[in-house]
Amino acid sequence: MSATYDAIIVGAGQAGPALAGRLTAAGMRVALVERHLFGGTCVNTGCMPTKALVASAEVAHLARRGADYGVQVGGEVTVDFPKVMARAHTVTMNARRNVERWLHGMEQLTVLRGHARFVAPDTLQVGEMTIRAPRIFLNVGGRAAVPPLPGVDGIDYLTNTSILQLDTLPRHLAVVGGSYIGLEFAQMFRRFGAQVTVIERQSRLIAREDEDVSQAIRELLEAEGIAVRIGAECIAFAPHADGVAVKVDCRDGAPEVVASHVLLAMGRRPNTDDLGLDRAGVAIDERGYITVDDTLACNVPGIWAMGDCNGRGAFTHTAYNDFEIIAANLLDGDHRTLSQRVPGYALYIDPPLGRVGMTEAQARASGRPLLVSKRPMTRVGRAVERGQTEGFMKLVADAETKRVLGAAILGVSGDEAIHGVLDLMSADQPLDALRWAVPIHPTVSELWPTVVLGLQPAEDD
Ligand SMILES: Cc1cc2nc3c(=O)[nH]c(=O)nc-3n(C[C@H](O)[C@H](O)[C@H](O)COP(=O)(O)OP(=O)(O)OC[C@H]3O[C@@H](n4cnc5c(N)ncnc54)[C@H](O)[C@@H]3O)c2cc1C
Ligand SMILES: NC(=O)c1ccc[n+]([C@@H]2O[C@H](COP(=O)([O-])OP(=O)(O)OC[C@H]3O[C@@H](n4cnc5c(N)ncnc54)[C@H](O)[C@@H]3O)[C@@H](O)[C@H]2O)c1
Q1: Is position 261 annotated as part of the catalytic site?
Q2: Looking at 146-222, which runs of residues are DSSP E strands?
Q3: Closest ligand to 346 CA?
Q4: Binding pocket residue ranges, ligand 1, CB within 6 Å
Q5: Distance CA 354, CA 348 (A)
Q6: In the beta sheet, which residues pair with residue 373?
């Protein structure tokens, strides 16, 4: 069987469904192909279930700290792990159903279930069906990378997907990879009551951030009883009577971590290896990401790539913004580009890390004259009142242009309060605009004008 459409979208992740909505509303006949779960990673095995779990972990943590606030919680605080997991599952299921309902309600849209593979630049095979269109949009996402570490094939390991199927709390969770996925799961499982060890190959946690950020994160995780093993250059696994033995040190006889469960959180790989891209002539880079230009177009005319599969963002909001760029350019006569996007993201440990733009290290490496200001969260009234004063706020600016280059807030509500700076940078406004804003009291954002006033020329390294 074969069919021709005005456009084909592959993947119902964070960009595909929204684009289907815009294209069909513009009168196009569109086919959307999904091989697995509607909503993709974020809804099913990423942001939504993990942030629901983070919320449960925060409640457990606060309940244990109740006495600090003058609140008595009768007896020991315990966590009903199956109920915690069921709550996260419900959040996911509701969101997945909403995406499904949304798509099935779109006039002019044909939803096809199955794996899509190119057979020609304008043609895809989905099961028995051959579909053709002059415009093809790839939104195929990615999956957990499992590097061929010694012994990995001989153990039962968890990924961000399978960990969500657990029905009993691990006794001891070893988390390999100390970045977003690893740290979010590490802290929540510790708060649920598991013993947790984070094993990271690099010399510090979340090593793409500044050293002061890495250090502060390590301290707050260790303060909750999470063991951290950094510089683990010889990671290897072996089955053990108590679960899995993880070798972390190159020295023979060095102590191993013996855990009941191992979570691999060592990055992602794009779902581009089984897409038949060679049949279409679509170029990929050495890591398998689809090469796109500033408007998300591939090297083959009529094919675009959105979201995690293009390697130009690894977040839900960047995938969605890819859709917005494509829709604006194709349907609204606009000229939007990737390079207009100010990079922002958050790490959802508690308290969270909110980030925008360059790190201080990146700004220094750029060779510009810099202004830097840093204030501890102990100076933020709201943090004091809420009894959560770990962390700091940091702002880095160009001394000549008086434009912000980047900012970080590791602290309570940091994921929200970073938006003042993100918006300032997106609007390309100078520091003065932040200095003279009148933020609401008592908020974390209210310290930004003080942080601006504290800017000093950066000292040499
Ligand atoms: C544990 C975890 C937590 C996260 N937390 C956050 C967070 O808090 N905030 C944030 O911004 N980001 C977070 N992310 C990242 C976020 O989930 C991704 O960036 C986002 O989901 C990417 O969306 P996407 O549309 O590119 O791809 P996906 O959501 O992965 O969607 C791709 C879809 O394509 C389908 N597909 C693939 N190949 C084919 C094919 N050949 N044929 C048909 N269908 C196909 C897949 O089944 C899938 O449904 C998290 C990720 C993980 C793993
Ligand atoms: N809050 C959020 O927005 C959020 C949350 C979770 C995931 N995500 C997305 O998911 C993506 C994947 O997250 P991630 O944490 O898996 O990947 P990552 O690429 O951010 O980090 C991987 C970590 O594993 C370590 N590592 C890699 N290979 C290793 C090896 N062989 N041995 C030991 N350590 C090794 C790296 O040094 C790094 O610290 C991120 O890019 C992020 O965009 C986002």
Answers
A1: no
A2: 172-176, 195-199
A3: 2
A4: 10-15, 33-37, 40-42, 45-47, 50-51, 115-116, 139-142, 160, 181, 271, 275, 307-308, 314-317, 319, 348
A5: 9
A6: 395
Domain ranges, ordered by start, for the chain: 2-142+269-340, 152-266, 344-455
For residue range 310-359, list pLDDT tens digits in order.
Answer: 999 999 999 999 999 999 999 999 999 999 999 999 999 999 999 999 99
The best mutation among 9, 34, 42 to test binding of ligand 1, ranked by most ligand atoms within 8 Å of the C-beta, falls on 42
Strand partners, 4: 132
SS3 357: strand
Output the CA angle 111-37-59, nearest 5 degrees. Answer: 140
- CA of residue 31 to ligand 1 center, whole Å: 19
| Predicted TM-score of the model (pTM) | 0.98
Rounded CA-CA distance 394/460 in Å is 17
User: Token match 């990271």: residue?
Assistant: 200
344-455 sits in which CATH class?
alpha beta
Q: What pLDDT sits at residue 251?
A: 81
**Host H or E run for residue 356:** strand 353-357
Is 2-142+269-340 a CATH 3.50.50.60 domain? Answer: yes
CB 187 within 8 A of CB 226: yes
CATH topology identical between 2-142+269-340 and 344-455: no
Nearest CA to ligand 2 atom 25: 177
Question: DSSP letter string over 404-425?
Answer: EEEEEEESTTHHHHTHHHHHHH
Report whether 388 contacts 364 (CB < 8 A): no
152-266: in CATH 3.30.200.20: no
